[in-house]
Design a protein that fits this description.
A hairpin with a 2-residue loop joins strand 11 and strand 12. The protein has two domains: about 140 residues, Aspartate Aminotransferase, domain 1 (Alpha-Beta Complex); about 270 residues, 3-Layer(aba) Sandwich (Aspartate Aminotransferase, domain 2). It is an alpha/beta fold and about 450 residues long. The termini are far apart. Helix 4 packs parallel to helix 12 and helix 13 runs parallel beside helix 15. About 40% of the residues lie in helices and about 15% in strands. It contains 15 helices and 15 strands. The strands form three sheets. The protein has a seven-stranded mixed beta sheet, with helices on both faces. It has a four-stranded mixed beta sheet with strand order 1-2-3-13. A four-stranded antiparallel beta sheet has the order 11-12-15-14, with helices on one face. It binds pyridoxal-5'-phosphate.
């Protein structure tokens, strides 16, 4: 019998012995430095030694309402557990699944994606999209299976999702992967030729996409999958005209367009879905993390009437499902989260505060090493100039450690000779948190590479 551990040293020791962390550094000795987080409040986290950290990443891009609504979540979870602790969303169903699907479809509004299937994770959502697309074409009498994603994009870790990942280092250990996962250029503008307009950049990217479709054979391509703003690679916003151009290409070649809104769903860009902000019109949209502000394990895949329709003709069952999708307790928490987000008017807050956050981050341009500040909503990246150092991995570690010592948690990704800081605060963040964030970054970057 394991007693609850309160002492940091004992927790670290037990962690090293038993707890295999996801993407965790499990090398000997790594756990000696392991931070054990025990409490959250507002936009801040506290570790087992009482240290306080600004969570400038919303944990893993997901705690959109921050950490102060535990009582409200607990109340609905307890009520649901007392009434019906579990029921599947298969042949029969339960009220929370129905209510949540109606609410999510309502939030998608003008995107016209009224049919909602729940998943237990973002990666499983991506997997579901690819399977919907494949079976959709089978039902329509076509055999299309390929999927086009973008370089550097992250889409999850199941074999389908990892095949779609545009990060070779994540794919290689598991090869051979699912055939038919292809990658095209992403929308990174930093480093493009000087003077190139957004329209020219969009045309360049769309030409690349179209060339790939033609090279593969359009009749084999089932879907194109993109994030409205791509996280991996550093908050890559699309150039004007790109979203509309993707829709036109999808229509021209009969391909389904899929939005991976695992991060951008539920307010990150100041709209319920990022597609609404950037003018993307997907046939399928997948979302997860912030559907419950990560207080529950739940995601949602939304599809249009057109995609749904072939599955409604008997005996055309979508041969897919899982035990925990639309779990009633998770659904109740997600409903509460959406209610809190609406009550706090978080979309309006993000749009109103976006210029202030952007300006605060752009003030860092006076540091020599800052090359690019980009993003939208509450979703930004700071890319350090290539050539800042000879070893980006060392630099990233140094910055991450420096920020951690300064009480700021965010993600620092190495580039070959620089680094990218990913910034994604809870949507309840305000001027005080922006000041804390930018002050901390300034201090650390000045010391490390000013
Ligand atoms: C865009 C995107 N898609 C999919 C995923 C996978 O989500 P999960 O970790 O819940 O499987 C992530 C995770 O960060 C993501 O950022």
């Amino acid at each position: 019998m394991i007693e609850p551990l309160s002492d940091t040293a004992k927790l670290r020791e037990a962690s090293a012995a038993h707890n295999w962390r996801h993407f965790g550094d499990m090398t000997d000795g790594a756990a000696e430095q392991l931070r054990v987080i025990v409490r959250g409040e507002g936009c801040h986290l506290y570790d087992s030694d009482g240290n306080r950290f600004l969570d400038a990443l919303s944990n893993l891009f997901c705690v959109n309402v921050g950490y102060s609504y535990g009582d409200e979540f607990a109340e609905v979870a307890a009520e649901q557990l007392r009434t019906l602790g579990y029921h599947a969303n298969w042949a029969s169903t339960h009220p929370r699944a129905i209510e949540l699907s109606a609410r999510v479809a309502e939030l998608a509004g003008d995107l016209d994606l009224p049919h909602v299937m729940f998943t237990p994770s973002g990666g499983e959502g991506v997997e579901t999209c690819w399977k919907i697309a494949r079976q959709y074409f089978k039902l329509k009498g076509e055999n299309r299976w390929k999927a086009i994603a973008r370089e550097t994009a992250y889409h999850g870790v199941s074999l389908g999702a990892i095949s779609l990942n545009g990060i070779a280092a994540y794919r290689e250990p598991f090869e051979p992967l699912v055939p038919g996962a292809l990658h095209v250029r992403n929308t990174k503008a930093y480093g493009r030729p000087e003077g190139e307009t957004e329209a020219e950049h969009a045309a360049f990217l769309l030409e690349d996409m179209e060339a790939r479709i033609l090279q593969e054979g359009p009749s084999t391509v089932a879907m194109i999958i993109v994030e409205p703003v791509q996280n991996a690679g550093g908050m890559l916003t699309p150039p004007a005209g790109y979203a509309e151009g993707l829709r036109a290409l999808a229509d021209k070649y009969g391909i389904l367009l899929v939005a991976d809104e695992t991060i951008t769903g539920y307010g990150r860009l100041g709209t319920w879905f990022g597609s609404q902000r950037i003018g993307l019109r997907p046939d399928i949209l997948t979302s997860a993390k912030a559907l419950s502000s990560a207080h529950a394990v739940i995601g949602a895949v939304l599809v249009s009437d057109r995609v749904y329709e072939p599955f409604t003709e008997a005996p055309s069952l979508f041969k897919h499902g899982n035990t925990f999708g639309a779990h009633p307790v998770m659904s109740a928490i997600a409903l509460k989260n959406l209610e809190i987000m609406e009550r706090l008017r978080l979309n309006e807050h993000v749009l109103a505060k976006e210029p202030e956050l952007r300006a605060a981050l752009e003030s860092l341009y006076d540091l020599d090493c800052v090359g690019d500040v980009r993003g939208m909503g509450f979703f930004y990246a700071i890319e350090l100039k290539p050539g800042t150092v000879s070893d980006g991995a060392l630099l990233a570690k140094e910055i991450e450690n420096g920020l951690s010592d300064a009480g700021i948690m965010l993600r620092v990704t190495p580039t070959p000779t620089g680094a990218i800081l990913g910034i994604c605060p809870p949507l309840v963040a305000d001027t005080a948190e922006f000041d804390e964030l930018v002050g901390g970054i300034r201090t650390v970057l000045s010391a490390v590479c000013g």
